[in-house]
From TrEMBL:
Keywords: Oxidoreductase
Group of enzyme by EC: oxidoreductase
Cited Pfam families: adh_short
Entry's EC annotation: 1.1.1.-, 1.1.1.381
The protein's name: 3-hydroxy acid dehydrogenase/malonic semialdehyde reductase
Family label: Belongs to the short-chain dehydrogenases/reductases (SDR) family.
PROSITE patterns xref list: ADH_SHORT
Amino acid sequence: MALFLVTGATAGFGEAITEAAIAAGHRVIAAGRREDRLHALAGRLGEAVLPLVLDVSDAGAVAALPDSLPEGWREIDVLVNNAGLARGLGPAHEVDLADWDLMVATNVTGLIHLTRAILPGMVARNRGHVVNLGSIAGTYPYPGGNVYGATKAFVRQFSLNLRADLIGTKLRVTDIEPGLSGGSEFSQVRFGDEAKAKAVYEGTDPLTPADIAEAVLWAVSQPGRVNINRIEMMPVCQASAALAVHRT
Ligand code: NDP
Ligand code: 8X3
């Protein structure tokens, strides 16, 4: 039985990862900003869930986290850096800079600060697994992906570089890189518009939060000698497109 810390557990992938971890007999510190959702989740899944209100972009709260956890919930085995978001799909020369700042603050700065806070304990125990939520957007460019895709490219390279630093320890690092996925609030958050969010999935059979959770639990449950570096996953209805050529 392992102790997980899952960020962004109030919706989508994080909620599904929490459910899957509990179903597999683990304990989960379920983190997010929406306290009502965290309590509903803990109420539904029982005492193996510890609800934790945490904004990953709050550097002070993140740094204070390891010492503020209750006794018995401090030795985190699996950190799932799932909290993240996209804002907008406009071209780089027109976007709202606040959207770019928010994506960097959450997907990059929040993720690295939390990792930095949790890693020393893992290294001291010589036990632990960091699972990051990257995206295919970190590998394949698309119009309007600008800073969102760049944050996920950062997550992929940071994951690989963590492994380089952790060589010689028993710690593991995995980057999960999903493509088009429904059943979460991702597109609602990206567009702030229900009709636009719904249109993203029309006529598709996207990945589900349960698919992502299964990949996370599979990576974590490998024998200790096995490190799954990256899992890139797409729904069958999605493939990378041809390069664009502008002709006059
Ligand atoms: P959701 O919008 O459904 O969930 C995002 C979660 O992140 C919410 O629980 C939200 O909780 C939390 N969150 C956002 N900002 C913060 C913050 N500052 N501090 C703490 N928690 C925060 O999206 P998904 O489940 O789809 O996405 C999860 C991850 O997977 C993201 O990193 C996303 O980039 C990535 N991803 C998503 C894909 C998709 O198509 N859906 C595909 C590939 C990757 P709260 O608001 O309560 O804080
Ligand atoms: C989410 C997948 O293709 O919308 O990371 O960027 S995509």
